[in-house]
Amino acid sequence: MSDFLSNFSPDKYDGKKQEPTPQAATQPEDEKMTPETAPETAPETASQSESIGSRRGSKQRDRETKVDEQPEKSQQAVSRFGQEETEFDPTYKNRKRKKIVIISALALLLAIVVGVVYYQLTHVKVPDFKATNLSEARTWSNEEGVVLKVEQAYDFDMETNQIIAQDIAADKKIKKGATLTLTASLGPDPEEQLTLPDFSEMETETAKQWIEDNKAENISLIEQFDDSVKANAFIKQEANNKELDLTKYRRKDRLSVYYSKGKEVFEKDIEVTDFTGKTKTEAAEWAKKNELSYKEEAVFSDSVAVDLVVSQEPVKGSKLAKKDTFLVKVSKGEAMTVPDFSQYTIEEAQGLETKIPVQVSTIYATNVSYGSFISQSVEAGKEYGEGDSLPTVKVVYSLGQPYLKDIRFQATEGDLPKLFFDEYKSKGAYVYYDIYYVDSAEPKGTVVEMSRYGEFIPLETWITIGISRGNLQGATTSVPEDTSVVAPSTDEETLETEE
Predict the structure, then answer these.
(1) CA angle (375 as vertex; 372, 376 as ends), nearest 5
(2) Are 254 and 221 a contacting pair, CB within 8 Å?
(3) Which DSSP letter does residue 303 get?
């Protein structure tokens, strides 16, 4: 009995309340104990009690197992003596198990979410930088907190600073603060040797295409207007380094190639202003502003002041195009004109009043009569302005054919050099003489003999002159009649004398 009652001790009772079992409901009818079926025999022995308890425990466990398999059925357990009933909840373990599973699942899910969020916050997706500009990658790295390492290499197909490769593939994740290595292009290799074409055989567009295809960025193609070379034709080529061998041209060498744009043609849309009477400065500034070719010509004017415009070409209202010529004639003031001295005699020329200096001289001339005009150093009619440098006009008149005077007994040997220079050589006649000495009562050194005298002579002649030794005694020879003044000869007289 004590074994039986021990099953209802407080600790076991509490355990049964926490984990109720439906053993009473599943117990077979023949095993149910009631007061009427209770044995009337004496109390069992200890061994019998243990055996009975063991069998009851086994049956109890079988009944609990059946209850777990069918949790939906509610059962009741009745005490052996019918004095007390205990109700068990068959779904308790199942609910407890579900609760544990749910809590575990939620914890796992939370851990996954936290891990994913952390990964997303600390990692970024790498874009595809290939063929993009390096500046875009730098902007991205600054925004995303990724360290950027840039390596450079020459690449013909990629422009300078375009990205050739990246060490982390596109769309892959990289942790913030990690290093992404990019290879950027330096463009084509400047040391590469290129075979230059014959540009003189190319037209402009063909040359441009060759430069572009070969990425020869240091070849400058210059187009300019040229009046003598047709459009699109080659003009010349020049290397910056004059000693450069063009057969060994490298991409880094600088070369200028010139092509013609033909003759520049402008529309005649510039209306000419009237500058007559205005300053030449105004005309020049207007021409410069309209990109005209300005030309200026100085002219004399009796009515227009110095440096003012006298006339212009073309006139007011005409139409000009850029680069056309605009000519203005500017006043030099009143002209000083060189006279025509052929219209004047020697005396008139010497007395002529003019602002231009004049020097009148005479020379011998066998073919021009005495007093006639021979020449002037500045042509007649030439004009000079007030600010011009004025020349001296040298005017020459004729003395006719030279006449050899008789200088016997009138001159001495010492007078001869000056006499022949002043009378003949300075006036264009060259009279050469030889001296010989004679015995004479005339003072020593006196001219006593002449091979020729008192006659017309050519412009160049020779004579002999006798000089007295002064070694004889006696009367001196009288001075001959004065022949120093001789009437000028005419052309006819000269011819007769020569004959």
Answers:
(1) 125
(2) no
(3) S
Residues 250, 253: Cα–Cα separation, whole Å: 6
Strand-pair category, 173-175 with 234-239 = unpaired
CA distances from 320 to 225, 325, 329, 364 (A): 19, 8, 18, 60
Task: Tell me what pLDDT residue 396 has.
Answer: 95
3-class SS string, 89-147: CCCHHHHHHHHHHHHHHHHHHHHHHHHHHHHHHHEEECCCCCCCEHHHHHHHHHHHCCE
The pair of three-digit structure tokens given for residue 435, joined into one six-digit string: 């001296």
Handedness of CA 296, 297, 300, 302 (dihedral sign): negative
CA nearest 60: which of 6, 5, 3, 7?
Answer: 7
Both ends of the chain: CA-CA distance in Å? 208
Residue 235 per-residue DSSP state: E
DSSP letter at 439 equals: -
pLDDT for res 56: 54
Give long-range contacts, CB 8 A cutoff, 24+ apart: 269-273: 269/319, 269/321, 270/319, 270/320, 270/321, 270/322, 270/324, 271/317, 271/318, 271/319, 272/312, 272/314, 272/315, 272/316, 272/317, 272/318, 272/319, 272/320, 272/326, 273/316
Helical ranges in 310-440 per DSSP H: 346-351, 416-423
Which contiguous run of DSSP H or E holds residue 373?
A: strand 373-376
Burial label for 191, CB within 10 Å (0-12, 13-18, 19+), is exposed
Catalogue the E-assigned strands of 261-334: 270-271, 293-299, 309-313, 319-320, 325-331
What pLDDT was estimated at residue 12? Answer: 47
pLDDT of residue 34: 44
Kind and range of the H or E element at 383?
A: strand 383-384
CA distance 164 to 157: 9
SS3 346: helix
- pLDDT tens digits, residue range 72-112? 444 444 444 455 566 667 788 888 888 889 998 999 998 99
Name the CA dihedral angle for 240, 243, 247, 248, rounded to a multiple of 10 degrees: -80
Q: Which amino acid is at 327?
A: L
Residues 73/22, Cβ–Cβ less than 8 Å:
yes
Q: What share of the chain is helix, strand, coil (3-state, %, to 5)?
A: 30, 25, 45
Amino acid identity, position 472: L
Amino acid 478: pLDDT = 55
Taking residue 398's Cβ as centre, other Cβ atoms within 10 Å add up to 22
Residue 399's contacts (CB-CB under 8 Å, 6 or more residues apart) are 362, 363, 364, 365, 370, 427, 488
Q: Please list, residue by residue across 119-156, b when 16 or more beta carbons sit within 10 angstroms of its beta carbon and e when fewer do.
A: eeeeebebeebeeeebeebeebbeebebebeeeeeebe
Tell me which residues of the chain have a pLDDT lower than 70.
Answer: 1-88, 475-499
90 burial level (CB within 10 Å; 0-12, 13-18, 19+):
buried
